Amino acid sequence: MYTQKLRPRRMRISPAVRDMVRETTLSPKDFIYPLFIVPGENVKEEIPSMPGVYHLSVDQALKVAREAWELGIPALEIFGLPEYKDADGSSAWDMTSPVQRAMMAIKKALPEMVIVGDVCLCQYTSHGHCGHLEGHYVDNDKTLKLLQKVAVSQAEAGADMVAPSDMMDGRVAAIREALDDHDFINVSIMSYAVKYASGYYGPFRDAADSAPQFGNRKQYQMDPGNAREALKEVELDLAEGADIIMVKPALAYLDIVHQVRETINRPVATYNVSGEYAMVKAAAQNGWIDEKRIVMETLLSMKRAGSDMIITYHALDAARWLQEGNCF
Ligand code: PBG
Ligand code: ZN
Fold first, then answer.
1. Rounded CA separation 200/183 (Å)
2. Which of 195, 197, 202, 219 is most buried when burial is the number of CB atoms within 10 A of its CB?
3. Each residue of 41-75: pLDDT tens digit?
4. Listed residue (56, 95, 92, 47) closest to 76, CA to CA
């Protein structure tokens, strides 16, 4: 008779055993929570395509920042909607803009919270592109000068890290140089090294009012068919001085996350983007899926693929669910 000696099911027999042998786990320390800062006071308005995510004035953002810190979330990424827009996006380096004011306020109230600044121009330019335009072409090297100003202004406002998301060539080196010239040697760079031209950014562009007014971003963001090119982008950004490498979006690009993880010995971040969030929220609101299970399984997949940290709009919920336990 056939005797079954090898029984993997023994290691699944109870929740406690499963907890003991689980290879990948989640913690609130894995999360970076994005905030959208708007002008004004006492503003807390839900973003329609991102239920549970809000436009926040600085005073309200401070409350959310405290809540995140109390839940054990170590970092926030700050996005903003400025008071004015112009051709070169000059409100992006205006020290009185919502992003810079939020950074100063959060740094003061929660000095240990890691503040990450998104460095890009699309939220600040009248045309919605991520850089300086020459006709309909985004001029790479002229944009670098603008990005340097944004990064330095954010460092001055208290950012611990800057995260360039524009996809210009050479921007990590340019930003590193500008930070060092201003003595911000300990401000680190989390590079959106591998950022694909993706339909998954749709809800974000509504939320940040940053959709391009003509054309698309395919001349600077990456083509979804390319994996080898992702490794090239990573190599360049590391050579230019990036401290953390990000892959974005996350879910449709977990193969890329895994390849980057296998290739480099630096921290890897993934961005669980707005479209990924909106899909889960919509299905959950319809009662079609179990939100907690789906969110935790999804975030776990990003960790398992090799991310050390995940930028996610689910961060507050996920941190609460981790406190409750019974997630897996
Ligand atoms: C700005 C930026 C974008 C996102 C982060 N920074 C949008 C874009 O490139 O159009 C997307 C984030 C998300 O979808 O959650 N360049
Ligand atoms: Zn941009």
1. 37
2. 195
3. 999 999 999 999 999 999 999 999 999 999 999 99
4. 56
Q: Which domain holds residue 131?
A: 25-324
Task: Let me know if 206 is exposed, middle or buried by CB neighbors in 10 A (0-12, 13-18, 19+).
Answer: middle
Q: How far apart are CA 187 and CA 103, in angstroms?
A: 14
Overall pTM > 0.70? yes
Q: Give the rounded distance of the alpha carbon of 60 from its chain centre.
A: 20
Task: Indicate the Cα dihedral angle 86, 88, 92, 94, nearest 10°.
Answer: -70
Whole-angstrom CA distances from 311 to 163, 164, 178, 268, 316 are 12, 14, 25, 11, 11
Residue 13 covered by a domain: no
Compute the distance from residue 321 Cα to the ligand 2 centre, in Å. 32
Contact 54, 44 (CB under 8 A): yes
- Quick one: which ligand is closest to 221's CA? 1
CATH of the domain at 146: 3.20.20.70
Residue 8 included in any domain: no
Nearest ligand, CA 118: 1
Q: By the 8 A CB rule, do 121 and 200 touch?
A: no
pLDDT (average), residues 131-138: 95
